[in-house]
Amino acid sequence: MKKLAALILVLLIAGAIYWWNLPATVKGPHSEQEFEYIVRITGNGSSSDTLPMIITLHGQGDTPKKFFDTLLNKFDQPARFVVLKGIMDFPGGRWGGRGWPMDANGLRKCGNALADAVPVFLERFPTKGKPIVLGFSSGAGIAYYLAAYHGEQFSYLFPLSGRLPNGLITDKAESNSDVARTIAFHGRTDQVIGFRQGELTVRNLKQEGMDVDFITFNGGHLGIFQSAKPLVMKQLSDAVMEITP
Fold first, then answer.
1. For the segment 19-42, what is each residue's pLDDT rounded down to a tens digit?
2. Cβ 86 vs Cβ 164: under 8 Å
3. Predicted pLDDT at 209
4. Angle CA 196–200–203, to nearest 5
């Protein structure tokens, strides 16, 4: 009897672990693009709480779980991270990693589809304030796009080591009456997405009248996970605390 009880307990634990890592899917009402995602709760929050939502996008060749575990799992404020899985195959990506489009047309389609899905997220999860978006590398391109074209849906956007193609910045003037604040990070020695590309993106967005801060640091593309990590966590924590004073 004890062996049976132990076996049942092991199966329950294994099932819980499997369920915890199982991605869910979301699709907006006006889009055919479906997004897979996982959810992680930080701080002392619970899944039933009304929490700030942080929509998170990893970089090329990564996975939602690995990205969260590497950058965000020590975040100490109560929040709900909705960590999206890239929509594109990424050749050579480890751990079955995926990616995000970086060309103007693909980025536009993906960004619009994600903006369309945000109200569905808000129906599924009790959320305090407008969502925050955090994206790294190609995911930062999506974050920049959302800032430029759908900023009214969000409170803060954090593009980390990314850029937005010039044409996407100039083909629409955003209404800036009620848009999110954008806080961008970029390493000065980034050789993957060059520092000047991020700097130019921020300059162009500012010329459109957007509220953008540009935080630079000594380091390369992956410096976000190293020397710049405390800076990112501090800014993200401040944003969450502003939503939940």
1. 445 569 999 999 999 999 999 999
2. no
3. 85
4. 140
Per CATH, the homologous superfamily of domain 30-243 is Alpha/Beta hydrolase fold, catalytic domain (3.40.50.1820)
Confidence of residue 153 (pLDDT cuts 50, 70, 90): very high
* Residue 9: C-alpha distances to residues 3, 13, 17, 20, 181 (Å): 10, 6, 12, 16, 47
The model scores a pTM over 0.85: yes
- Angle ∠(83,88,93) on CA atoms, nearest 5: 85
Burial 219-241 (b: 16+ CB within 10 A, else e): bbbbbbbeebbebbbebbeebbe
Per DSSP, the residues of 187-234 read ETT-TTTTHHHHHHHHHHHHHTT--EEEEEESS-GGGGGTTTHHHHHH
Domain coordinates in residue numbering, the chain: 30-243
The mean pLDDT value for 60-74 works out to 95
Helix ranges (DSSP H) in the chain: 2-21, 64-67, 104-124, 138-149, 166-170, 195-207, 229-243
Q: Compute how many other C-beta atoms are within 10 angstroms of the C-beta atom of residue 126.
A: 13
